[in-house]
Amino acid sequence: MDEKGLGERRRYSSLFLLSILLALSFATWRFLWENARGSREQDPADAREEAAVRGNSREWFSTVFNRQNSDTALLESLLVIDGLYPGELGLAVAVASDPDLDGGRAYVLDLNTPPSYLKVFHPDGTFVQSFGRLGEEIDSEPVDLTVDEGSVWVLDSIANLYQFSGEGHLIKKVTLSTDRRLNWVRSLAAGPGETLYVLGIPALYQIDTGGRVIKEIGIGGSDEENLGNEGSEFYIGPTSVVSTPDGDLLVADPVKGRVVRYNSLGAYQGSFASGYQSLEDLAIDGQGRLLAANPSEEILEIRGPDGLILRRIAWSSYCQPFLPEQYAGPVSVAWSGPEKVWVVDGCGAGLQLLDLEEGRARPVGVTYRNESFIFPKQVEPGPAGGILILAGNPEAESKVNNRVLLFNRNGGLVRRYESSFNQGSFLFPQAVAQGDSESTYILDVALMQVFDSRGRLTKTFGQGGTGSGQWGTEIRMGLEFGPSAMESVSGGNLLVADTFNERLQEFSSKGALVREIPLPAGTRPTAVTQDGDGSILVLDGYTGLVLGLRFSGQVDWSFKGSFGLPPGPSSEQDLELSGGMAVDRDGRIWLSDSYNHRLLVFNRDGELQESYGAPGSQPGYFLFPAGLAFDRQGNLLVADRMNQRIQVFKTPGG
């Protein structure tokens, strides 16, 4: 797959993170969970999350997930609310299959449904199992996989290989032994005997199952036998490799608009023109029929061993996008049987099984549940002791994206809030708060929507702008962002963090402006809360600045976390773009250190008191934690963004 295609398909995530890494709140592995920002300014959290989701920071990934230690302090877990079920797909990016194994079951890499990133489905659509835990069994973001003689091989973004049994047991990890740095590894294929092929930039590498590089094939260059590569916003090159039944190799070479053939010794055997500059994936069956995915043209092609087109399939006739402008082409393919094909598409990055004889495709692992959500950004105590969850990523196309939901204290869904516009769907909800009068406030970009205790819309107010009572917005990559946070304060009023106007504004419950609260020049508030003494606490997540101030705007105290990646022994309180803030009953300040996957506790002097958590998917571990809040019982609510879940903890003294 070319880098442009990779960026498109991973836009659904996010990390924002991993998205650096979407989740670096997203900041979210999509959030994510992405495209070069050019000269336009971007929220650092979104930029970091995007890089992570797209795998642009592969060394970073390896560093982060090998940094865990046995002395990690954990909080006592009371409840976990998962956004997706294990058998649902969050961000499918690659599929492989063996037609001789269980009728051609699908093995799918799914980046956004932890804890396991490899999902298995039967051809009848039944979910079989999941395996491969990031940070435990897999060191970095998985990029491709292949199935060979009952084994499943997974390639990660830093060129490690993992061999699993068909039942999901990790057999071994293989690190490629080469003095060349493998850049942008993209594809993995099994060859005859004990041979594997890893495709990267600038070459195709033949290796044995112990990781020893046997030879380099088709090193990038301008000659006919060389694979094409070029640099722009991304460094792009060959995208997919498959081994034919007779042992030859076929490589998708989109830069030169062709498919290249090499023999088993690596000698160039010719090529045929594909006619496309965006070939994303190849698959081959036992008859030598080549299946090629071209996402930008929304085309699937089946070619014979001679390269001649046998069939061309317009994929858009099977794919029903969630949004009209959604990228909806096929990005990964695999033969399930003689006339059946697995396809990962752009419709929410879902999985489809295409029956070539019937000419129909049906979705597998697609979620439409009312309680489903992805990329939780904020969590707050809700009405009747419930839990309000604001979730979403503006770049992720999915029916379960950009939702606001209310759960009870046992983790059961109470309601899903419906917007008054956009056919009931929120555009990009960015903040939620629970008022004293049991009203729920949801800020959708620059429009406040107010709901009563039964979830009925009662009023709307607000608009974008720079004047009094207006909220600043910014357009980034065609998406509009507005205020980042708000807090219900005494008297039933609402305090809004007007991020892009660099101020706070207080409103009455009816939407009337009460006052503007100035902030020091250059401060962009991304989180706001109030402590037991009535002081306002403001977090600038762009810089790690924390302010304690009065309603007049007078700053009483402040501290600022420095930035370090990763934090070392001498920099334990470094903040990596915090995504959330809350104050406990003792006045201590809790910050979500999103990109270091932990929670930090400070006093007002900026002295680090405690550190909790580490990267992982077990209870008490985090992947890009975002919003924080305390409920009336003193329990801590955490939006565990890239783990696609909410965690509730009992805190010391809580």
Could you explain the architecture of this structure?
The protein has 654 residues and is mostly beta strands. The longest helix has 10 residues. The N terminus is likely disordered.
In short:
This protein has 654 residues and is mainly β. 4% of the residues lie in helices and 41% in strands. The protein is elongated, with a radius of gyration of 25 Å.
Main β-sheet description = 4 strands, antiparallel
- Backbone structural class: mainly beta
Distance between the termini: 50 Å
- The number of helical elements comes to 3
Kindly estimate the percentage of residues that lie in beta strands according to DSSP. 35-45%
Q: How would you describe the shape?
A: elongated
Q: Spans with pLDDT under 50 lasting ≥5 residues?
A: 1-70, 321-327, 563-576
Radius of gyration: 25 Å
Round the mean pLDDT to the nearest integer and report it.
Answer: 82
Helix content: under 10%
What's the count of strands?
Answer: 52
Strand order within the widest sheet? 1-52-51-50
Can you tag this structure with a few keywords?
654 residues, mainly beta, 4-stranded antiparallel beta sheet, 52 strands, disordered N terminus
Give the topology.
Layout: H1 3-9, H2 44-53, H3 58-65, E1 76-82, E2 92-97, E3 106-110, E4 116-121, E5 127-133, E6 142-148, E7 151-156, E8 160-165, E9 170-175, E10 183-190, E11 195-201, E12 204-208, E13 213-217, E14 230-231, E15 235-236, E16 240-243, E17 249-253, E18 258-262, E19 268-273, E20 281-284, E21 290-294, E22 299-303, E23 309-314, E24 332-337, E25 340-344, E26 351-355, E27 360-364, E28 376-381, E29 387-391, E30 403-407, E31 413-416, E32 429-434, E33 440-444, E34 447-451, E35 457-461, E36 474-476, E37 479-481, E38 485-488, E39 494-498, E40 503-507, E41 513-518, E42 527-530, E43 536-540, E44 545-549, E45 555-560, E46 581-583, E47 589-593, E48 598-602, E49 608-612, E50 625-630, E51 636-640, E52 645-650
Antiparallel strand pairs: 1-52, 2-3, 3-4, 4-5, 6-7, 7-8, 8-9, 10-11, 11-12, 12-13, 14-15, 16-17, 17-18, 18-19, 20-21, 21-22, 22-23, 24-25, 25-26, 26-27, 28-29, 29-30, 30-31, 32-33, 33-34, 34-35, 36-37, 38-39, 39-40, 40-41, 42-43, 43-44, 44-45, 46-47, 47-48, 48-49, 50-51, 51-52
